[in-house]
What does this fold into?
Amino acid sequence: TPENKVFYSRLVLGLFGEIAPTHVKRFLTYVDVTYNPLDDNPLPSYGRSNFQSFDQATGLLMGGFIPSLEIKDIGGSAAIKYGGRILPASLWAEKNAPPKLSHNQKGLLTHRNLELAPIFGVTTRTNTA
It folds into this structure.
């Protein structure tokens, strides 16, 4: 799309539940949120998120930025603050997974293991390096 133009489209993702079950489970907790217009204190959802940046060098499209969602230190532990809710902030680390999953194709979903926020990236090009 031309510079500084809003682009609307449909995004279809395939998730690798057998390879990265923890990541898939956490990702889906932000997808499977029922919308209720009468709820003045909803759970955080990707339905309210946006793609905030695109890294020209790596081709990584960054998404999952949910407005007003914050990672806070509460009582010595990390927590997610969203609206009037305080939710646990757990690492998205995989048990029994390979040390590093390869993201060398375009169209793959990625999330940093040590990132507590539900932000994610989508690869937009093939990386042969």
Summary: The CA atoms of residues 70 and 128 lie 35 Å apart. The first helix runs from residue 21 to 29. The two ends are 27 Å apart (CA to CA).
